[in-house]
Amino acid sequence: MNTARISVSIPDSCLSDSVSLIAKSQKLSQIARACSIFRVNKIFIYPDRTINSHDNHVIKTILEYLDTPPYLRKNIYPEMRLLKYAGTLPPIKSPHHKSKIHLRDVRNDEYRVGLVVKTHGKLYVDVGLDRPLPFEGDLREKSKIIVRIKRNRNEYSCREVQKNQVTGYWGYDVKFVPSLFGLLRNDNYKVLITSKEGNFFRLNDLNDSRRREILILFGSPKIGVRKILESEKIDFRENLDYTFNMFPYQGTDTVRLEEAVLGTLSIINYSLNYQGT
Question: Which of 142, 146, 193, 231 is the most exposed place for a label (fewest CB within 10 A)?
Fold first, then answer.
């Protein structure tokens, strides 16, 4: 398996072709599923200055909700209109979406996503067991963290760990960025832009990126990446490493964003893990 870490960047106008809340929820669910299937590390939401969008909070809330283990959702997300249709969306079932189990069944050194809670002035962590576990650390109440559980006979405790300390895929993070310019100037990323104007993608085009951070940039349903970049005075041909047409000879007039995310990630995943000659 390759060691490249993949992030995607979508505009805050990504729901501009969806009118109802249920349509927006279903679209974001498809994006969340695709990102989880192909082990996306971060989902960046960038501002599309060509359109006045008000969906920032909807996008971030639903994407984060879907990445949250089911046993924590009621405690983290109160009843809110934005999540009215969340219960109808297909579950992601990533490795960190573990089942709620009895305390006696938890393993020593098991990793779980938890929520910091306070009881009688002391901090505990709800990790989907019969009762919260004592927490070793100093965090604010209601903090969502990853913990490593220590078990010594019938004594339990847990300590916070970072995502990169956990083996395997552990979900995605959702972040707002103030502009594309700052994101694309980050030297940590090898940027791939999806555009009809790009070159045809070949299997060996990412040979030098197998151990790097890859950032895939997507446009909006109504405006392509080129115009979004030009609104920030960025020449995408001169400033980006790769510009590819991931769907050459497409049989439809457009490729919807959720389709582009799934298709592109599938192609990139195959390219990075291809072992042929």
Answer: 142
